[in-house]
Amino acid sequence: MNHRSLITFFPHLKGASKYRFMKNIIFIFILSLSLNACSQSSSTKEPLIRSANRHGKTSVSKLLSEAKWNELFPNRHGINGKIKKNTSVDFYSFKAFVEAARYFPEFLSGESVTQKRELAAFLANIAQETSGGWAEAPGGYFKWGLYFVNENEDSTKNTYADITKKNYPPVTGKSYMGRGPKQLSWNYNYGQFSEAWYGSKDSLLNHPEYLATDPVLSFASAIWFWMTPQYPKPSCHNIMNGNWKPTHNDSLKGRIPGFGATVNVINGGVECGSGTEMAKTSYRYQYYQCFCKYFKVSPGENISCDNQKPFGQ
Questions:
Q1: Distance of CA 281 to the CA centre of its chain
Q2: What's the predicted TM-score (pTM) here?
Q3: Residue 187: which domain range?
Q4: 26 with 70, same domain?
Q5: Do the domain assignments include residue 107?
Q6: Which is catalytic among the residues 46, 99, 118, 129?
């Protein structure tokens, strides 16, 4: 229908009234097109793997160097034959970390102290998740982070397949055990990260083992988890940069900003809220303090989650 046809429905319109009428019709038409475009763009988010950010800068390169990385993680997977498996691949290389971080430009954003604390918190959690250290380990316990790629337990006991998550159904015969720096686990996490990275949940639901073969993808899974809130949990990133504001219920349950809340997000159901400190949780806290000391920044308040109830309670 053209503008002349519209006017025939309103024969009483003359002169200026006709002009204002047509002007309003055109405005409404343009507005509807704009709203439709916005709706489409929000529902078709570009997969990370195709993001233009992959060629950008990252604060990781400002705060770390390959020499510092080697100093912090001298026994990481594939270095100096430290892994029993026959491999010479430096899986957790600094280069892979930097490349993955470029896909997440908001990672380590903020002023200098905030950036250093967030990096210390991120490294502390991935170091403990993948630690191969023990009390009398050469160089000390805290020199053995990023040692394991696959979960250091008998994964045949638990495939981490939750059939109640209908949007991300597990594939028969596939294990969604912990893999990579964050030890990403469970089918719904693999599926959500797969959607964000590839644009399809099926890629990693069908091939969860990719996280143990592609170093950049593996680091990206850890940063994605760190940056992404999953209700009722905030993102670890927002906790460390001060953007998370606890709800009234959070405050009642002891969930307050600080490193301890990141532990709660990652493994709160196991490590938080008992009122006593588990050995592995103690190592997380000590890792964080070690990294803060290395980056010459104070750790801030609320390091522990011992008195924090897990999110969702």
A1: 20
A2: 0.84
A3: 51-294
A4: no
A5: yes
A6: 129
